[in-house]
Amino acid sequence: MTQPTPSAHLHAALSLAERGIPVLPLREGKGPMGNCRACRSNACGGRPNMKTPGPCACAAPCHAWAAATTDPTVLTSAAWAAAWWQAAAVAYHPGGTALTVVDLDNAGAVEWARHALPATRTVPSTRGEHWIYRGTMTSPNAVRPGVDIKSLMSYARWLGPGIGTMAPLPDTVRALAVKEPTTARPAIAPTVSAPAGGGQCPHRSPAYLERGIAMAEQRIEDAPDGIHRTVYRMFLAVLSAHGRCGCLTADHVDRLFTAAQTKGESLRHCETAWTNARTQLGM
After folding, report:
1. Per-residue pLDDT tens over the stretch 66-123
2. Do residues 169 and 100 lie in contact, with contact meaning Cβ atoms separated by under 8 Å?
3. Taking Cα atoms as reference points, which of 101, 30, 104 lies closest to residue 64?
4. Which one, of 176, 131, 152, lies nearest residue 64 by Cα?
5. Nearest to 213 by CA among 165, 167, 259
6. How many CA atoms lie within 13 A of 145 on its CB side?
7. DSSP 95
8. How far is residue 280's CA from residue 283's CA, in Å, rounded to a whole number?
9. How far apart are CA 95 and CA 101, in angstroms?
10. Whole-angstrom Cα Rg for the chain
11. Which residue blocks in 117-189 are alpha helix, DSSP H?
């Protein structure tokens, strides 16, 4: 089967933009383009995964969903040219066009939706379906097995217009974003106390810890492939160095999860990698 060319991806993006749908290129693996050198490690002032847009005005498609645009001048600019050559697909920002996508990742999730959710426009995906509703909401991942939500501050792969009449976003979908305590992210602040002996833990040095976290973020961001393996190895390295002394905080681990999710990892995969790393270290 012939793969779409960069010009085909750009043509599709321009067609969507003309209809008022903000678009961006996706790299192989369905992840956004990595931050450019000027924007790495939050140097530009905008958060790497753009959960909050920040002040960055980079001309490249550098900040995941926040780079999505309907401006044909931007889409065809020299700053975006390299990204289209690397692109494996086109994505769009559902929240930017007042939509919510319920991403059903397997047959079991699709079967659940057919019984639990009101009918709406559907689009076949690689392993399941996208159900598209009119309206916006937050964009939590892993709201139930095989189900992610893509709306505000998120992106979804463009898979075609779909079939069926688009329904208003129902309360049953909004309720999915309210997780029960048992499904929330596990407590990530280490429970092991600092080493005994009366001395100060050397890992509590802000500079030492910051270098470790920043290095792990950069390794995850730069991984060209094998992202599952890279995320696990970086989680393992951070926990090995800092997990037993109590210096890690929820903010530190949130940065690691953010870096992984920016590369396309789901929250579920992040949690699994974190748990496996702790188990490997006997923590």
Report:
1. 889 999 999 999 999 989 998 999 999 999 999 999 999 999 999 999 999 999 999 9
2. yes
3. 30
4. 152
5. 259
6. 6
7. G
8. 8
9. 9
10. 20
11. 171-174
- The tokens describing 154, both together, are 């998120």
**Alpha-carbon distance values, 102 to 91, 92, 162, 264 (Å):** 15, 14, 13, 17
Which residue type sits at 121? R
Q: How far apart are CA 166 and CA 102, in angstroms?
A: 12
| Dihedral sign computed on CA atoms, order 270, 275, 280, 282 | positive
Q: Are 14 and 90 in contact (CB under 8 A)?
A: no
Q: Which two tokens stand for residue 69?
A: 């645009």
Provide the phi-psi class of 30: left if phi over 0, else alpha when psi is between -120 and 50, else beta: left
Residue identified by tokens 């397997």 is: 106
Tokens matching residue 55: 């002040």
pTM greater than 0.70 (yes/no): no
CA distance 227 to 273: 11
